[in-house]
Amino acid sequence: MQHFKTLSSYLDYLGLQRPEHPMLSVFTSKGNGYLPCHRESSPPIINDCYSISMKKFVKGNLNYGRTKYDFTNGALIFVAPRQVLQWDDSVVFEQRGFSILFHEDFLKGTELGQQIKKYGFFSYSVNEALHLSPKEERQIETLVENIEIEYQNNQDEYSKDIIISQLSTLFKYANRFYERQFLNRKEISNDLLEQFNQQLEDHFNSEQLQEKGMPSIVQIANKMSVSQRYLSDTLKKETGKTTTEHLQLFLVDEAKNLLLNPNKTIAEVAYALGFEYPPYFSRVFKKKEGISPTAYREKYKMN
User: Fold this and answer.
1) How many domains does the chain fold into?
2) Measured between alpha carbons, how far is 147 from 163 in angstroms, rounded to an integer?
3) Cβ(82)–Cβ(57) under 8 Å?
4) Alpha carbon 133 to its chain's center
5) Which domain holds residue 227?
6) What CATH code is carried by the domain that includes residue 121?
7) Are 85 and 45 in contact (CB under 8 A)?
8) CB burial class (10 A; 0-12, 13-18, 19+) of residue 276?
9) Could you tell me which residue ranges the HTH araC/xylS-type domain spans (predicted)?
10) Are 151 and 199 within one domain?
11) Which of 79, 76, 73, 87 lies closest to 37 in space, CA to CA?
12) pLDDT in tens, 63-115
């Protein structure tokens, strides 16, 4: 998988102009103008940059790690370093809006460098982009205009601090707006399902899958301080899926990322996810995705 370690190399890949600053780039549309077009398609890639983009007239789907975002209605999109990105020629990038990209080292040694790690919208934990109201959109655009002014001016000893201050304010507003969005979309942010998925995430990140295998529903329910029956019945009622189905969906989503690594065999992916028998992993994956792990890897391998 191609890995872009500098901002300039990533912009070259996208077909965009080199930045005014080696670790910061700002693109905005003016009046009836459009943002520069990106590449029409891309296999899975990663880079060492953060990006914040407002896409107003976008069609098609963009794969961000385990998530497929639909940007037909326009959205504010946050991407963190080393998250897998992929898109095809169905995505239309001729949009009004803005795009800010900065290398992770741009924040090194700053307070924001630590704070940014706490914002969920820069991780896979948020399963949708941020859709702004007209008033919210104007607030964000004002902040971006201030950032662009500093970016385009002859930079001095104050420029970086001012830009980082504006970025910090932008992230705080985004955090507020996400809270509003989730309150308005309770079906997306169901508390019990979030707790369930968090237990799976913790189990996976602690590498217990390889040591102890997949956790049982009873074990997960006990950690959540609810009964297995209550957990199963509630998730089935609110999502239409059983706890076992949610467990399998989580593992299949994790498998998608691992399968993008060509150096791992299908068996190694299965063992990494806690499956004792690779054929069983393949059956579960095919049941959920409609294709085998081998076919999935072939479909999304780098051109």
Assistant:
1) 2
2) 5
3) no
4) 21
5) 191-300
6) 2.60.120.280
7) yes
8) exposed
9) 194-299
10) no
11) 87
12) 655 455 555 455 788 888 988 888 776 655 545 688 999 999 999 999 999 99
